[in-house]
Amino acid sequence: MAPTWDGESTAVIPQPVFDDPAHDGVRHDVTPHDMTPPEGTPDEPAQRPLIEVEVRRISSANLLGKRTQCAYEIWTKNRVYGLDANLACIEVIDLASGRSEKKHPFIGARLVGGQNRTEAGNELTFPLPTPGAEAVFQAVDANKRVRLSITSRVTRVILHVQRVQVGTEQRDSTWDQIASSRGPTLKSIE
Asked: How much is the pLDDT for 61?
C-alpha cells in the first residue's frame, strides 16, 4: 500500500465550540498562522469526538448546484482531504500553504475506510477512518486494476451537514439540485 506521508510536521487546529448554544455551527476558515491548540492542560489534553459534525448554513438554494459540496473532511498532519457525499476525494489542501493540490494522486479516488496496525493485527473502520488510523483510498490504475493507497495518521474526521431554508414552492426543485450535485441519478422505482 503506497503512497504514505509519514514524518510530516503536525499542524494544530482549533477545536470547534461544541456546547455553546450561540455557536452558529459554521466553521470559519483559519490559516496556519491563526491556529492555536485546543483547550486543555498538558496532563489532560482536550479530546475531540471520533467524528465531528458541523452544520453549515447555506444562504440560498441557488448556491447548491454551483459546485460539489464537501460532505466530509479527513485531516492528517499536513493535508485535508475533502470528500463528496459518495466518499470521492474532490479536493486536497496542503495545510502548510493553505493551497489546493489540484494534481494530488488521491483526487478522484474513493475513501474506503481506515486501518490501524496493532500488535494483534489490523483494526479496520469503514466507511470512515477514525483519528489515529490511516485513511485508505481506492482508485483504478491505468491497467484498470484496483489499487489501495493510504495517508499518514488521521487527526480529525468531520461530517458536514448542509442546511438551507427554502419556501414550500421551492422544495422539489431544491431536492433536484441536491440530488444532481451528488452524482448520477437513480433509476426509477417501479
From this structure: 59
Give CA–CA dist 90/109, Å, rounded: 8
Has residue 167 got a pLDDT over 50?
yes
| Angle CA 40–43–47, to nearest 5 | 45
Q: How many domains does the chain have?
A: 1
Q: How confident is the model at residue 60 (pLDDT cuts 50, 70, 90)?
A: low
Q: Which amino acid is at 102?
A: K
* CA nearest to 151, candidates 188, 101, 98, 186: 101
The answer to whether residue 69 scores a pLDDT higher than 90 is no
DSSP annotation string for 26-57: PPPP--GGG--PPS--SSS-----SSEEEEEE
Q: Of 26 and 158, which is predicted with more confidence?
A: 158
Answer whether residue 40 is part of any domain. no
Query: What distance in Å separates the CA atoms of residue 115 and residue 133, rounded to the nearest whole number?
Result: 5
What backbone torsions phi and psi does residue 120 show, to the nearest 5 degrees?
Answer: -85, -5
Q: Let me know if residue 184 belongs to a domain.
A: no
